[in-house]
Amino acid sequence: AQSVTQLGSHVSVSEGALVLLRCNYSSSVPPYLFWYVQYPNQGLQLLLKYTTGATLVKGINGFEAEFKKSETSFHLTKPSAHMSDAAEYFCAVMPPSGGFKTIFGAGTRLFVKA
Amino acid sequence: GAGVSQSPSNKVTEKGKDVELRCDPISGHTALYWYRQSLGQGLEFLIYFQGNSAPDKSGLPSDRFSAERTGGSVSTLTIQRTQQEDSAVYLCASSSQTVNTEAFFGQGTRLTVV
């Protein structure tokens, strides 16, 4: 069965600092990988996704993530945090075949300090 | 429709009452998901529909929870004899038939059982 682990339920960074949110997955075959963001009192929206091809994926708002098969990881990064990045971030996996069920991690809440 | 629509947006109910939560997916999306998000928790998978059938209902917490989907479109999540621990935000998402596409989320229904 697939699973997703997000290390750190809360991450705090200063404005302008590097953002690093960690995600590791467990799967017998490399799944499709997603990062979603949830701003306060809003629904989830897709930040970026990896399916096949280039392992470094760029998303909206300056975020990017790199798929590392050897480490079963898909960490999310942004070079310089902005106050507006404060939100909850969810890593998710979907099997590459045989179904569309998406499994989400527990989420990481990002705080950005002025 | 343009996006996933959920109703009501907020629901306060008395313990022991039944509630129905509605989800209108994006037109043409064959996959539909229900998740539950409790305070401080991640997204808990409840049930997944492909068309009108539910290949995976493994996440339903108890037999008080049920869901149906009709016409390959609208879905209703029903909670019978609500308990205080049912209080949460219930999120619905839909995705297209194409593999590796992301899920699009509604704004959720905030259920409060008093």
**Sequence stretches where pLDDT stays below 50 over 5 or more residues of chain B:** none
Average pLDDT value of chain A?
90
What is the rounded distance between the termini of chain A?
A: 41 Å
Number of separate strands of chain B: 11
- Portion in helices of chain B: under 10%
**Spatial shape of chain A:** globular
How are the elements arranged and paired?
The complex is a heterodimer of chains A (about 110) and B (about 110).
Chain A lengths: L2 E5 L2 E5 L4 E8 L5 E7 L5 E7 L5 E3 L5 E5 L4 E6 L8 E8 L8 E2 L3 E6 L1
Chain B lengths: L4 E3 L2 E4 L5 E6 L6 E7 L5 E8 L2 E4 L8 E5 L5 E5 L8 E8 L8 E2 L3 E5 L1
Structure overview:
- The complex is a heterodimer of chains A (114) and B (114).
- Chain A is mainly β and 114 residues long.
- Helices cover 0% and strands 54% of the residues of chain A.
- Chain A is built from no helices and eleven strands.
- Chain A has strands spanning 3-7, 10-14, 19-26, 32-38, 44-50, 56-58, 64-68, 73-78, 87-94, 103-104, 108-113.
- In chain A, strands 2, 4, 5, 9, 10 and 11 form a six-stranded mixed sheet that branches.
- The mean pLDDT of chain A is 90.
- Chain B is an all-beta fold and 114 residues long.
- Chain B has no helices and eleven strands.
- In chain B, the strands form two sheets. In chain B, strands 2, 4, 5, 6, 9, 10 and 11 form a seven-stranded mixed sheet that branches. In chain B, strands 1-3-8-7 form a four-stranded antiparallel sheet, with no helix packed on it.
- Chain B is globular.
- Chain A binds chain B through residues 6, 32, 34, 36, 42-46, 49, 51, 90, 92, 94, 96-97, 99-107, and chain B through 4, 31, 33, 35, 41-43, 45, 48, 50, 55-56, 91, 93, 95, 99-100, 102-108.
